[in-house]
Description:
- The protein is of the alpha/beta class.
- It has one domain: NAD(P)-binding Rossmann-like Domain (Rossmann fold, 3-Layer(aba) Sandwich).
- 42% of the residues lie in helices and 16% in strands.
- It has nine helices and seven strands.
- It has helices at 20-30, 49-59, 77-91, 106-110, 118-139, 165-185, 210-220, 229-239, 266-274, and strands at residues 8-12, 34-39, 66-71, 94-99, 143-153, 191-197, 251-254.
- The chain has a seven-stranded parallel sheet, with helices on both faces.
- α1 (20-30) links the parallel β1 and β2.
- α1 crosses α8 (229-239), α3 packs parallel to α5 and α5 runs parallel beside α6 (165-185).
- The radius of gyration is 19 Å and the shape is globular.
- Residues 13-15, 19-21, 40, 72-75, 100-103, 127, 152-154, 197, 199-200, 202-205, 210 line the site of nicotinamide-adenine-dinucleotide.
- Nicotinamide-adenine-dinucleotide is lined by residues 13-15, 19-21, 40, 72-75, 100-103, 127, 152-154, 197, 199-200, 202-205, 210.
Amino acid sequence: MGMFEGKKGLILGVANEASIAWAIASEIMAAGGVCGFSHLPDGDNRKKNSGRVKKCIEKHPNPELAKFVAPLDVQKDEDIAAFMSTAKDELGQLDFVLHSIAFATLDDLKNETIATSREGFKLAMDISAYSFLAVCNAAKDLLAPESAVLTMTYFGGEKCLPGYNVMGICKAALDASVKYAAYDLGPQGVRVNAISAGPLKTLASSAVGAKDMIWLYSQIAPLGRNITHDEVGRVGAFMLSPYSNGISGEILHVDGGYNIMGSPGRLLDKLAAAQPAT
Ligand SMILES: NC(=O)c1ccc[n+]([C@@H]2O[C@H](COP(=O)([O-])OP(=O)(O)OC[C@H]3O[C@@H](n4cnc5c(N)ncnc54)[C@H](O)[C@@H]3O)[C@@H](O)[C@H]2O)c1
């Protein structure tokens, strides 16, 4: 029997097959979990959002475990309320909720962090940090005892990673939100955690220079390689399953150990070896 047999929950943030949310949802569905998916509302210039999510589901070996695909723009309270109402009708009580959503404009990401525009800062924080609290609050009454909420964060919220810029500030706010939400929802038995993933090629990460970071991780991380989508998918499923009961308020790094390094490690050895002898 799969570890999600009889479990139901929400997956917010699948854009396409490369999305971290899809890596986690695939694992959950493979283990028997029933999922309800969000997609960015289909507008004139983003007609294909629902189609892209449905395409991922169609290719999965257990497509029948996707109970619904519904629009959600987390900047709109009415969208969040409507999405939770669909979740209640289609799934009833929820055992897991994944929030895997972030956005900042390219202009703001390209700027030095101190040059972030006021509007760009508000937009990035609204979508990438505040939405997590709003989703937790809207899901509160649907969450079963011993259920789990998970969000996706990045090391750029803990340390300065040039290029990550305003998104680093959003992730710092998200990390703090995880702890406060874990406290708020703890009494009803709900666990709240985050995974801090190493860099992976996705739609969102192309805007924050993931390509260079992927190389850097392969040079500096203790494992000597970057992580894979499958690895994050499996840890995500674990964090949303009863196997992680007892873990709450945690930021779990799935990054090959990159975050423990206080120097470039073996990369430094390579650089030193390339220096002319003095
Ligand atoms: N890819 C990486 O290297 C990496 C590393 C660590 C953390 N993360 C985080 O993982 C999460 C998922 O990103 P991803 O890399 O899978 O990219 P992605 O582009 O596949 O996912 C981002 C999702 O956010 C959604 N979104 C954006 N604005 C929204 C809005 N207003 N309302 C609702 N949904 C909205 C998009 O539709 C998309 O599905 C993000 O929080 C990201 O910061 C990514």
